Amino acid sequence: MSNSYYVYGYEYLGASMRLVITPLTDKCYLCLMGALQLDLGGAPAGPAGTGKTETTKDLSKALAKQCVVFNCSESLDYRMMGKFFSGLSSTGAWCCFDEFNRIDIEVLSVIAQQLLTIRNAKAQKLPKFMFEGRELKLNPSCAAFITMNPGYAGRTELPDNLRLCLDPSP
């Protein structure tokens, strides 16, 4: 959208309902497409129930990319997330990590390094890269998005190194 260029994914997603486009979803699409153009992820933020996850999923449908929604919890560790990122980077799928700020701050810092490793491989246009001690094939269309519900008890702030990997969206 805007001046962004993205290759259509040709992933068959079935005949499903589409999201109603409002000025806010349009603005969110523009921000997320700009983030994708820079090999970043997106981080829509806002109160619960405002359509952050649905907007991300609808953008993936518009580009025919598989988008996996993953609900985060305090029990996630960096090894589990590393396996998840290995699959994403190899298949080129998208993921929307819902309620990302429920993850412990120590784990978030390691996740930032994992995302930065993938972003650097995409920026260098590498066909393969080293990730968590293994060589992986890189499909550059992979992307990670997060949603957060700020202001709730038990939620953590994103560390600075993680903010560098994600483009904040409205």
| Contiguous runs where pLDDT drops below 50 for at least 5 residues | none
Strand order of the largest sheet: 2-3-6
Instruction: Provide a count of the helices.
Output: 5
Structural class: alpha/beta
Q: How many runs of DSSP E, i.e. beta strands?
A: 7
Quaternary state of the chains: single chain
Helical content band: 25-40%
The percent range for strand residues is 15-25%
Distance between the termini: 16 Å
In short, what is this structure?
Helix content is 37%, strand content 18%.
Explain the overall architecture:
The chain has 170 residues and is an alpha/beta fold. Helices cover 37% and strands 18% of the residues. The chain has 5 helices and 7 strands. It has helices at 23-37, 52-62, 78-91, 105-123, 160-163, and strands at residues 41-44, 67-71, 94-98, 128-131, 134-137, 143-146, 166-169. Helix 3 (78-91) links the parallel strand 2 (67-71) and strand 3 (94-98). Helix 3 runs parallel beside helix 4.
